[in-house]
Amino acid sequence: MTSDKTSRGIFLAFAAFAAxxxxxxxVKLVEGRVSPFESAxxxxxxxxxxxxxxxxxxxxxxxIVKTNARGLWLxxxxxxxxxxxxxxxxxxxxxxxxAFCLIFLLPSFVxxxxxxxxxxxxGIRRWSAVIIGFIGVMIVLRPGFRELSVGHLGAVIGGLxxxxxxxxxxxxxxxxxxxxLYGAGALGTITISGICMLHSFTWPQGTDWLLLMSYxxxxxxxxxxxxFATKSAPAAVLGPTQYSQMLWAILLGYLVFGDKVDIPIIxxxxxxxxxxxxxxxxxxxxxxxxxxxxxxxxxxSLSTTxxxxx
Length: 310
Known about the structure:
The chain is mainly α.
């Protein structure tokens, strides 16, 4: 029975990351007709529909703004909003595979920040994973051989913002409700992107509304699926399934956007994914809360650990 339950959790996790990938494809299909600020704003607004499903027994809607550590909650608020805007910018300007390559640096950023801010002891294996990840990025970016764009900067900002959110989760630990952590991410994205979009706001037209709804609702669906996945299987087992998004990125990029994936992107992707898997393996051994899924909406900052979703 335990094996069946774990298998169900793994299946739900794969389904969740497929939904995340299609969510990101939806925002990429907007193709810059509205600004990344507007895309992040409306996507997050639609994504709030996941909130009722995330409430545990005894939780109230108002708990999304209640916290035991206001300073850290506000830091997560800002980091999540910045991360979402950066990720949307990346998917707008880069191929899906290249955007995911850079955003998947998130575990390496977490390792570095954990040493600096949480004073964690990091061994040679985790430092090796960080180095391998950055070598992978250099192979993908090929600095000096190709022009870098705002999309590359957006992807790095997306990964950094997500890493800050995870480090804050580790700092507050079980003292904070999961719905409060979700609220910091969602409200941060809505507020920051909402303010930033005011100077150049234009109403989305026609199918863009449908794409923005798809972006937000699919991310909400993915969040709920991950909630059920973590109830069936340990986060340590589910962690590696997030890298299935790279397969979806290559497939959707080829079929929908006509992207071409060259040898450097494949090689760099393998190194970055390998780096992430090494980090997940070491953190599983040490009992450290694992990184959440990689997504471009506020759902990215909701940790998929048992601690705050059960």
